[in-house]
Backbone:
């Protein structure tokens, strides 16, 4: 299956399991804003087929880089980073996963980062959905405090609400698997072809 076909199939899974829409904006986002639509990516990123697709797509984005690890703010980034890690090992170029804690432990190592990563490693920061980019920026800042070199950001869905521009003030390169526009276009296609609402 080509990467484009993988993205299309992943989009279908997201529409079926992770996308909610209403004419009246009932959804409150993490930013506090109200919205007509909402992405809860966990049913897609924790799905066996979804994880395989995501892992393969993200690996394709990173396979020609010297990035050795990928992760982001728990919980949204975790399934994506773990899927990448498994697929990358199977492809013969392992990329480790790591977790950025929301709250730093007050005991033990008191580290904000969990995983087998060391200062100086080149990493990608992962997120499932970006709206304002605040959680992604937090992950970038925490990773840098631990000495990791953040080379780029990869997000599953860009809601196209300014988050990408905010993140670009902290990192030079950001890639999205799907944009809100692409998901909405795919949804419209499904409604027309299959009568899905």
Residues:
């Amino acid at each position: 299956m080509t990467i484009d076909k993988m993205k299309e199939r992943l989009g279908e899974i997201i529409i079926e399991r992770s996308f909610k829409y209403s004419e009246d904006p009932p959804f409150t986002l993490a930013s506090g804003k109200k919205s007509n639509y909402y992405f809860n990516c966990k049913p897609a990123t924790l799905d066996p087929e979804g994880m395989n697709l995501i892992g393969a797509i993200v690996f394709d984005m990173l396979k020609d880089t010297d990035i050795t690890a990928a992760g982001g703010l728990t919980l949204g980034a975790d399934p994506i980073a773990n899927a990448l890690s498994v697929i990358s090992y199977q492809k013969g170029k392992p990329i480790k996963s790591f977790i950025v804690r929301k709250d730093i432990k007050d005991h033990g190592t008191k580290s904000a980062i969990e995983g087998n990563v060391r200062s100086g490693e080149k990493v990608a920061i992962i997120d499932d959905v970006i709206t304002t980019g605040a959680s992604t920026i937090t992950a970038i800042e925490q990773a840098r405090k631990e000495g990791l070199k953040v080379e780029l950001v990869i997000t599953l869905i860009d809601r196209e609400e300014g988050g990408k521009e905010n993140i670009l003030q902290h990192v030079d390169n950001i890639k999205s698997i799907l944009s809100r526009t692409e998901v909405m276009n795919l949804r419209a296609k499904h409604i027309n072809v299959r009568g899905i609402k």
